[in-house]
Amino acid sequence: MKKTTNRRDFMKQTAALVAAGSLPLSVIEIAFGKNSDQNFSFAYLSDSHITHIKGNEFVRNWDRGLVRAVAESNLMDPKPDFVFYGGDIAQLGKPEEIDHGLEILGGLNGKVHYVMGEHDYYLDLGEYWKKQLGPDYYSFDHKGVHFVVLNSILTHEKWMHKKWPSGMDRMLQMARLDNPDGQPFMVGDAQRQWLKKDLAKINKDTPVVVFSHSPIQKIHKGWNFWTDDAEQVQSLLKPFKKVTVIYGHVHQIQYNQIGNISFHSAMATAWPWPYPSSYTQVETYLPKLTVEMNRADPFNERDATGWQFINMHTGNIDLHYILPENQNRIVGYDAKQGKPVDRDYQKTDKRIPPQVHY
Amino acid sequence: MKLYKMMSACLLTCTLLTICMPSSADQFTEADVKRWTNEYMSVMKQGEKLFHGGLKANNTVSCDQCHPNATNIHPETYPKFQKQLGKVAVLGEMINWCIMNPTESEPLELDSNEIIALQAYIHYERRGVALQPGKH
Ligand SMILES: [Fe+2]
Ligand SMILES: [Fe+2]
Asked: Angle at Cα A245 formed by Cα A244 and Cα A247, nearest 5°?
């Protein structure tokens, strides 16, 4: 059985092992199924929002979040097969910010795959990011699973390419989450055509895992917890038996099941966003399945931030939220119910007061 | 008796004064209401700007980065006990806490234009929600 480790235990064990000089430590005991050679895990970090102030100064708080997540994920044992970074390395897409973020991420052991976030993109339409990291949509296969990465934070061509006084003006429009003139995220025709072709070669029994920055489902348009062509992307994924979509952007715990597709979001390393329902002036659609993360205590700088590691077995995932200031959470696929559930808090009578958002 | 007489005299003076004044407390027009609302809305708009990067912040962090549409502030629950401050506090004190910590800047006077404008915006985004003083 799996064992959760709260942060205090985790740090105690870390300290003890560091002292004993016997890294890496065992964070969890992974349950290996019958086909144990098919099981593997990977780490997922997201939304660091590295912010350049001036000269060599960066916002300390956001730096610390990423530094900590990198250090902790390096301690995973068994070692993850790779690491995913879910987007928004930078706050305003500046080369200084992307470079500084990548320097910290350079401390990660093993291969890192990157997803494009809107904060990485809208200064120069992703030019610097792509120069450093390569294409913003691609796919690969690993141990019998087909992985797809999408750039889901594109918007109307007309808006992206209109005559802006500067790229920074465009970036600042997108960087404001609650911008009343905000533009909706979308994957767009070109990538959907590519995805269709990419998936055509894949056997329908092959588990598919899709990474996007925004949710490929519609939760709250005002903050782009939303992808405009979500249904069209979902329909391309429909023929597959096991599909998982993992996304960043929302800086909070969300999960859902739509038909054959399980959805999971990630915590940010930088700061938490409120749940959309706490904006009382509009209607929002947080999946009913989601048991919300604890309300953040701003006096604890790292509260409601974190990173996650993901166990992939029998084609579905268990997602472990590593939360520095709270009890860790595990949301895993329940084959009987056919949907992801929280291991501890799913039942209404198991929930705790900080999980009530208003 | 003496006291009674004095009070009557006072009352009479007050009444006379009121009659002589050109307008009185309950006399206002739709135009007045419109003007007052506009005054509020313009301060609210100022607050919205301050909230979205308009405040002096030593590290460029802005309020909306953690509080889009001024959510997760819960102005309807103030004054309330803040365990971190160890006392019942008003909203302005928490705004100042945020100014000093996440944005690493100098606190403002509680009756400063900025604190008033920020509260005007925060309350506006929460309009219609019932008062819940002390709620956690
Ligand atoms: Fe983000
Ligand atoms: Fe984002």
From this structure: 145
Q: B80 touching A, CB under 8 A?
A: no
**Ligand 1 center from residue A86 Cα (angstroms):** 9
Are A40 and A84 within 8 A, CB to CB?
Answer: no
Distance CA A193, CA A230 (A): 14
Distance CA A161, CA A159 (A): 6
Residue linked to tokens 């500046």: A94
CATH fold, domain B32-136, is Cytochrome Bc1 Complex; Chain D, domain 2 (1.10.760)
Domain of residue A349, CATH code: 3.60.21.10
Q: Which helix (H) or strand (E) holds A163?
A: none
What pLDDT score does A314 carry? 80
Q: Does A22 touch chain B (CB under 8 A)?
A: no
CB pairs under 8 A between A and B: 56
Angle between helices A60-73 and A95-105 (to 10 degrees): 30
pLDDT-derived band at A6 (thresholds 50, 70, 90) equals: very low
Measured torsion, CA atoms of residues A169, A126, A272, A184, in degrees rounded to the nearest 10: 70
| CA separation for the pair B86, A163 (Å, rounded) | 52
The one-letter amino acid code at A127 reads E
Residue A357 has pLDDT above 70, yes or no: yes
